[in-house]
Amino acid sequence: MLDIKIQKTEQKRQKPDQTKLGFGNYYTDHMFLMNYSQEKGWHDARIVPYQNLSLDPATMVFHYAQELFEGMKAYKAADGRTLLFRPMKNIERMNNTAKRLCIPQINPEDALEAIKALVKVDDEWIPTEPDTSLYIRPFIIATDAHLGVHPSHTYLFIIILSPVGSYYPEGINPVKIYIEREYVRAVKGGTGFAKVGGNYAASLIGQEKAARLGYAQSLWLDGIERKYIDEVGAMNVFFVIDGTVVTPALDEGNILPGVTRASCIEMLKSWGMKVEERKLSVDEIVAAHKAGKLNEAFGSGTAAVISPIGELSNDGEKMILNEGKIGPIAQKLYDNLTGIQWGKIADPFGWSVEIK
Length: 356
Ligand SMILES: *Cc1c(COP(=O)(O)O)cnc(C)c1O
Known about the structure:
Distance between the termini: 16 Å
Order of helices and strands: EEEHEEEHHEEEHEEEEHEHEEEHE
Helix content: 10-25%
Number of strands: 18
Structural class: alpha+beta
Bound molecules: pyridoxal-5'-phosphate
Strand content: 25-35%
Oligomer: single chain
Largest sheet: 9 strands, mixed
């Protein structure tokens, strides 16, 4: 059992209009903190009023980006239950990321307890409008005030919460995607499989470029041959080719192992569909499209759940997918995943975890 000291705020914040939440615009009344030192390990778990941090300008995270994060959601079911979706998958991934960045592991049970305790304290912040949720952002930063390059000896584990709106207030609109050939997001041996801020910093330029050219996001290719598909924006990506669902395999270490990705694969297989995790080249996509066998494509991630791709731009050539509309497989995955997440349908997989 994690001993969490709880200091409640005396000045509650005003709650935002639930129909105008957007993503990451508002934060709740409290935050969770826990320190790490070599002498004490992880210690001093506490929930305190949401507030600024005070850090020495030499703090290592500012200079060498020894930082990781996670992203998950709490959902309010119609019957009042508060549900998490496969939280241990996120915690397991957090520890895998930590290993890559030389950050000490956190006991998974303690991390889950911290998340549950904070969500419980700020339960009234979980929005109840259709398709809204409470985004949970755990993160760890290196806190030694030192400019020498080495793993920090001290860390801070923080959890903040943000009520977020429906990702598709006007219904699901497939997006236009630009196949990026200049910049890469990750390479074999790098940090592609890890959820680290540094990956995002390096990908912003691709996002900016795509936006400038009139696209919603970049489709990232592998960093070595620039041939194989990695991810789309900050989502995993699926293609349906002649009825078979294909997604890039995780074994090269340059794909982020998404919880939504894993859930899509398990769900598709439970429906008896053929799913392949393997290398997938742009050439194969182009050939499938030319042959009329590229049925649909979509991204997967916690924020949007499923994001259909309506158009792909490859070196100036445009490929329109499924007439620019959401495909039946993307729609079925979206309905079933969100159905389980909001407790609207039965959960035969045992993915939902109730916070009591
Ligand atoms: C978080 C993330 C994903 C999606 O992971 P989920 O667990 O499904 O939210 C995919 N790609 C990148 C780069 C990510 O950071």
